[in-house]
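Running this now, will post back.
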Amino acid sequence: MQSSYIRTIDRIITKYEGSYGWDKGDPGGPTKYGITCYDLAEHRHQKMTSMSAWAKTVQGMTLAEADDIYAVKYAVGVRYNDLPLGVDACMLDYAINSGVSRPLTVARAMLRVKGSGMDQTLLDAIKKSDPDYFIRTMDAERLAFMHAIKHG
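Update: finished.
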């Protein structure tokens, strides 16, 4: 991983995600370091049974395992290491908070690239785009999306 990845993920975990918590109103259920019980079950190739059954397992998750989940699921999903500086963190953060497919779909729409997922065509288009424009536009769309969810 790029050194920027380590700084980015450390900041996400320490500044925004934190330690164990379970907000009963949050559909993600028990969460630690920003990793939900669903992410942990998927990472361990186990069936997610119930939030209550996974609460202690999530509580016991190590920071190293959370780091591995971020790297394997989110960073690889958006091809973090192949993205321009700044765009990499923008895409990773959006993927963590809205699922890997969301920022990829948005990037395709922004850059008018047909297809789905992260392929070489999309990656090339992202690299050719102005990073400041890309980040501003992605962040504006993300904010609008989050408002729509909250007020929808």
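The longest strand covers residues 31-32. More later if anyone needs it.
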